[in-house]
Amino acid sequence: MSPQYKTALITGASSGIGKEMALWWAKRGTKVYAAARRTALLDELAKQGEGNIEPIALDVAKTAETVARIQELDSRLGGLELVIANAGVGHPTPADTSSWEQVEAVLRVNVSGAAATLTAVLPRMVERKKGHVVGVSSVAGYVGLGAFSAYSGSKAFFSVFLQSLRVDLVGTGVKVTTIEPGFVKSEMTARIEGKAPMPFIADTHVAADKYCRAIARGARSIAYPRVHALSSKFISIVPAPIYEPLARKASEPQRQMLIAENAQKA
Ligand SMILES: NC(=O)c1ccc[n+]([C@@H]2O[C@H](COP(=O)([O-])OP(=O)(O)OC[C@H]3O[C@@H](n4cnc5c(N)ncnc54)[C@H](OP(=O)(O)O)[C@@H]3O)[C@@H](O)[C@H]2O)c1
């Protein structure tokens, strides 16, 4: 059986959700170009990929290089069929202690890097009248979270960016899928494990399977775990005078964590 997509590029494939998605497509015969900065981890991943995973050293925060690298790959392959902008960072940025450098570090990867990854191929896919772009956003974009202004804001940007792409691409033959994870086990969540509650946290393998199946059926979007997505949607309509003090209290552990990390670095 021939694979649904012959080629796929997945950013942030060295760990967590991106790594599991790379294995999912590779096992189904897709040639996966697995991109990230930690190439030693990608080399390990390639060994599990049944000969279908090729590591790509890529720092998406360097947007000009990212666009050039992806376009070079697209030209070499005669057209990438699936591009998944998954790379992301989740550092907390509490308003009272964060520097611009800390805020910018999140925006460079989650906003500029993510948008550059997809923009690099979109006009080419439209010209070819086929292709599928996917963005890994977050339920954190539904409502401004305490201590995570840059992260929450970056994911609100990405979900809306992807929705606008879908509008522009109506009738072009190019598909857009938005993935909005709730808590999923990964390096990102391991950093806050035990320091903050992570309700409804999903197994990485199970979550990646749900996301990849949604991509395979051409879904517009998927939010999983669904119970987290629904809770976040509900919280987003709670009146601000009630929401804000409660969210401030709930985010205190992350705030303290960053203050401790900053003190260690100093
Ligand atoms: N886990 C969750 O609960 C959760 C919830 C909502 C949304 N998400 C989103 O899911 C996506 C994947 O995160 P994850 O949970 O799987 O976390 P993770 O295990 O920390 O994986 C993040 C991936 O992004 C890559 N990355 C980070 N900065 C990069 C850069 N400058 N250039 C290229 N790659 C970079 C990392 O690779 P290198 O360090 O090797 O470059 C790594 O492969 C992210 O967009 C995240 O925001 C996760």
Task: Give a brief description.
The protein has helices at 16-27, 39-47, 63-77, 100-119, 122-128, 149-168, 187-190, 204-216, 226-235, 240-250, 252-265, and strands at residues 7-11, 31-36, 53-57, 82-85, 131-136, 174-181, 221-224. The protein is α/β, with parallel strands linked by helices and 266 residues long.
How would you describe this structure to a colleague?
The protein is globular, with a radius of gyration of 18 Å. With 266 residues, the protein is of the alpha/beta class. The protein is built from 11 helices and 7 strands. A 7-stranded parallel beta sheet has the order 3-2-1-4-5-6-7, sandwiched between helices. It has a single domain (7-265), classed as 3-Layer(aba) Sandwich (Rossmann fold). Helix 1 (16-27) packs across helix 8 (204-216), helix 3 runs parallel beside helix 4 (100-119) and helix 4 (100-119) runs parallel beside helix 6. The protein is 51% helix and 14% strand. It has helices at 16-27, 39-47, 63-77, 100-119, 122-128, 149-168, 187-190, 204-216, 226-235, 240-250, 252-265, and strands at residues 7-11, 31-36, 53-57, 82-85, 131-136, 174-181, 221-224. Bound molecules: NADP nicotinamide-adenine-dinucleotide phosphate (NAP). NADP nicotinamide-adenine-dinucleotide phosphate binds at residues 11-18, 36-38, 58-61, 86-90, 109, 113, 136, 138, 181, 183-184, 186-189.
